[in-house]
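[09:14] KT: can someone run the structure on this one? pasting the chain below
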Amino acid sequence: MPMKALVYVLYGPYRMCKLTAQHRTFRLEGLLTVLRKDGHEIILQETEDWNCVELVVNGETVFQCKIDELDFGGDGKLDPLCEEARKAVLDAY
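[09:31] RB: done, structure tokens below
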């Protein structure tokens, strides 16, 4: 995979602190930081899939997880899911 890929980040609504379900990017901050640090271009897209994050490269889903499993805020260095997602994007074809 080229060092700089176009990565679509599809994310759905989730419930935070028993508030109404909404599309929020707070938990995506670490993931986005890790991917941008590698030089990837990021496009965020809201979906209706509840509590879901998918990374799509070249039309193929290379990584997915529940959004509430990602660490809140931060730079993603200590979040093992961010590292797993980073490797999945680098290994994408």
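[09:33] KT: thanks! Strands lie at 6-11, 41-46, 52-57, 60-66.
[09:34] RB: yep, looked fine to me
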